[in-house]
Amino acid sequence: MPAPTLQVCRSCGGGAPVDVHFCPQCSKILALGRHGDYFDFLGLPRKLRIDPADLEHRFRTLSRQFHPDYFYNADPAERRASLERSSYLNDAYRALKHASSRIDYLLKLEGLGSASPEEASRQVPPGLLEEVFALNEELDEIRGLRASGAPEESWRTRLERARQPILRKQTAHESDLDALSAQWDAAVDRGAAPEQRREILTALRDRFLERNYINNLLHTIESELNT
Length: 227
Hints:
- By secondary structure, the chain is mainly alpha-helical.
- It is built from eight helices and two strands, in the order E-E-H-H-H-H-H-H-H-H.
- It has helices at about 40, 50-65, 75-95, 100-110, 115-120, 130-145, 150-190, 195-225, and strands spanning about 5-10, 15.
- A two-stranded antiparallel ribbon has the order 1-2.
- Strand 1 and strand 2 form a beta hairpin.
- Helix 2 (about 50-65) runs antiparallel to helix 3.
- The radius of gyration is 24 Å and the shape is elongated.
């Protein structure tokens, strides 16, 4: 079923496009209803490379328009609509502000969302199996050294050495995500076929899951260093 293109103004009963925030007929703020998505709400194309200054400007502009203080003396329906839109705007801004949360949101929007953070942290991506196995072995040996009373310098040196290939992996994955984000944006610009978009999104999802797991590995090493 196609998404609705019109919404009904509760104040005057007139129709308004779903991507506007105020009724074009009576100028009253519209109830949020079933809005499309965060990109649409902020007037942005569904792309991954966003100008931070532009996003900030859009957020602040809408924040001023929706702020509940401006609707203090309005009727209950308008006050509720102001609160709904302000809350949704804050959620949209948080989701789109950072590249990682933006990718995560896009994947969910396109039906390729990842598992919960807990499940994702337990599931080792196939491309990282060898590195994870080697790192876990090294960490077990380092914990054994610490338990036996070995000098701190010896096991800290090994931890630092174990961290280096994971850091390189992290840098490579960030570069891959940036390149795939550019591919996605180019596909949106040229109106690529669904199967082409899906291929990019699948690669993006796989790299994103690996990147999250790499971050978990680095967190584990940091925990060992700070214990």
